Amino acid sequence: MMQLPAGFEEMCGHLCDFPELKQALNQPAVTSIRRHPLKPNSSQTALESVPWCPHGYYLQERPNFSHDPLLYAGAYYVQEASSMLLWHVLEQLQLPKKNLRVLDLCAAPGGKSTLILDWLENKGMLVTNEVVAKRTRILSENMERWGYANRIVTQSEPEAFARSGAFFDLVVVDAPCSGEGMFRKEPDALAMWSESNVQHSHNRQCSILDSAARCVAPGGVLIYSTCTYNEKENEGSVKHLLETHQAQVISMDVPEKWGVTVGGNPMTQGLRCFPHKVKGEGFFIAAVQFPGEKQAPREQGKKRKNYPALHPAIGPWLQNPGVIASLEHRGEHFIYPTAMHELVEELTKKIHVLSVGTKAGKLAGKELIPHHALALSLELRNDSASYQLNADEAAQYMARETLNNTGGLAGWCLMKHQGVALGWGKATGGIVKNKWPLRVVIRK
Questions:
Q1: Taking Cα atoms as reference points, which of 352, 357, 348 lies closest to residue 156?
Q2: Is 16 a catalytic residue?
Q3: What is the pLDDT of residue 109?
Q4: Which residues on adjacent β-strands are paired with residue 329?
Q5: Parts of the chain belonging to CATH 3.40.50.150
Q6: Comma-separated ranges of CATH 2.30.130.60 domains in the chain
Q7: Are strands 248-249 and 261-262 parallel, antiparallel or unpaired?
Q8: Is residue 42 predicted with pLDDT exceeding 70?
Q9: pLDDT tens across 328-348, in order?
Q10: Distance (Å, whole) CA 74 – CA 77
């Protein structure tokens, strides 16, 4: 039986049927995934759909994800179902996606950023930021696996974005919090809870929101979310944002059958997930509209032709090279949509940019040596030479073992499992040299 912290019931008991919440917290947590809408996906047997996200599914049990090739290929992302409610909020906003600028300010490990990229449908652009250096690696890896080139990965404090002068049509703040909603999945959150920690989290959230608000374009929207229950960190932080920046909450509708709770105060209204009412953990989300005239959709990449030309060695690898630019940094070549170049220029002046778009690779003379990220990219040509791996061969490949060239291939080829690209191999003679990255070698 879970022992809830002293003071927690007093702070949160009035928000729901507390005995039912306590009972739910002593039940096993559910496992859910979000499938990539543009990659083949047949490995996970799904019991039912997550009702608020078209690509979300519940699994009957939690498998050993760490040895599944399709996880590393970006065929799906393991994501808590309640946090997928972001998709429904994005749909409710009805924002024009073309050239939409989105900032995910507290992004690691990347679940919400990958969801935003799916929702954008390659029409807008995303800046995905993480302050903590040690968390940027997993964020970068998840962005790489998800395969979109219309994104920039950064590592800067929220205040740096506020000072940068860059404006975004949509800013998402999934704020650091006391983690009450994760009590049954993360024992540390339970052990560290205190009323003083709640106050500290609220103060930190208000500081982040003050910086985030300065990045929102006139007429733009800020989405705020936490994985906690209490009002101070949820409605309290939203109230601070509204009072300080003259913004207004956007009311949202949800079908009653979903079990999602709609906040009672229309001035600070958000949506809440309780584990005794939905199949998921605790979650809060609200959307706020800022004053001013919305900008017309940008026609970037047409009026301005000063973006870097795509390197001729890269073009033949891509399915639509006419809308892709490339830049070189320390010998590595990156590809990204031409429409994103103005934003790239704005950010690189004042923000610590870790990567722009997709890393295509290095040049050896006139030949491109493709990077692992290019194998996972949605910009790669569909007719690239490939080698289909069964389950045993996929395990050998991820352990960096040499494979037999049974397909008679020559040169660079995609190593695929169940139709999804895992990475590169280079066929020569009777073998395929293994190009799986050393940083993610998986041994059973």
A1: 352
A2: no
A3: 98
A4: 332
A5: 6-289
A6: 385-443
A7: unpaired
A8: no
A9: 999 999 999 999 999 999 999
A10: 7
Helix or strand run (H / E) with residue 353: strand 353-356
Answer whether residue 242 shows pLDDT above 90. Answer: yes
Q: Which residues contact 303 (CB under 8 A, 6 or more apart)?
A: none
Q: What percentage of the chain reaches a pLDDT higher than 70?
A: 96
Q: Which CATH architecture has domain 385-443?
A: Roll (2.30)
Token couple for 310: 């795509």
CB 12 within 8 A of CB 180: yes
Mean pLDDT of 198-227: 98
pLDDT at 9 over 70: yes
What's the pLDDT at 47? 72
Compute the radius of gyration of the chain from its Cα atoms: 23
CA–CA separation, 128 and 381 (whole Å): 26
- 54 class by beta-carbon count within 10 Å (0-12 exposed, 13-18 middle, 19+ buried): middle
Query: Which pTM value belongs to this model?
Result: 0.96
Are 20 and 276 in contact by the 8 Å Cβ rule? The answer is: yes
- Omega of the bond leading into 109 within 30 degrees of 0 (cis): yes
Please give the Cα distance from 228 to 180 (Å, whole number): 4
- Return d(Cα 96, Cα 78) in angstroms, integer: 28
Place of tokens 């923000």: 351
Contact 158, 212 (CB under 8 A): yes
> Which two tokens mark 303?
């009026």
Strand partners, 20: none
Tokens of 45: 């047997």
SS3 427: strand
Q: Exactly one of 12, 106, 227, 273 is catalytic; which is it?
A: 227
Please tell me the distance from the alpha carbon of residue 36 to that of residue 189, in angstroms, as a whole number.
30
Q: Do 35 and 78 touch, CB atoms closer than 8 A?
A: no
CA distances from 272 to 21, 181, 204, 235, 251 (A): 13, 10, 21, 11, 13
Query: Residue 297 pLDDT > 70, yes or no?
Result: no
Q: What is the mean pLDDT of the chain?
A: 94
Spacing of C-alpha 328 from chain mean position: 25
Assign a CATH topology to domain 6-289: Rossmann fold (3.40.50)
Residues 434, 391 contacting (CB under 8 angstroms): no
Predicted confidence (pLDDT) per residue in 302-334, tens digit: 455 578 899 999 999 999 999 999 999 999 999
CB 175 within 8 A of CB 226: yes
High-pLDDT (> 90) share of the chain, %: 88
What span, in angstroms and rounded, lies between the C-alpha atoms of 114 and 354?
17
